[in-house]
Each structure stands twice: as structure tokens, then as C-alpha cells.
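note to self: dont lose this again. the chain is below, predicted strucutre after it. 97 aa total, dont forget to put it in the shared folder this time
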Amino acid sequence: MAKTVENGEALGAGPVTAVKSILTRIIAVFAASGLGVIGAGAIIGIDTLSAIILAGTLGVANVVEKLARAYLDDGKLTSAEINAAFSGVDKNHESKK
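---
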């Protein structure tokens, strides 16, 4: 069952669904950011685990900052604002459209 979108908000998606989506996507951001630096950390002499944790944390912090700024604008987060916050991590986001 597809949800229709109206004015940047998914119809039928409650706050629990939005929080679950945000949390699972944050885990994916951590993984995508962390796994991308495994080779780079080895090249410059940082142990692998520290490189993954640092890159993953920085990726998550970037997304959380974007979500916080969007929330500060009007006191709510639309699905468009949530997607925009995560699109910066997904380098292929524009090519998927």
C-alpha cells in the first residue's frame, strides 16, 4: 500500500513511523559513512575501528544537525525535510530520480 504525499507530508504516517524511519536511516548513515573510510584510515595510520567510529559519528551528527535546523524553522518535520536531511549522505540520491 503506497502512501500519497501532500504538501511534503506522507499521509497516514504517524510520529511513531517517522521516528522509526529516522532511527533506522541514522543507522544506515553511520554504516555508509563509516564503511567508506576503512581504506583511508589504513593509509594514514588510524586504526580501522577508530576511523569507522569517527566517520560514522560525523555523518550522523551532520544529519541530526539538519533535522534540528528543519525542526527549528516551524516546530515540525515534514517528510520532505526528513528526506532532504538524509539526501546529503546518499551521493546517488539525485540520480535515483
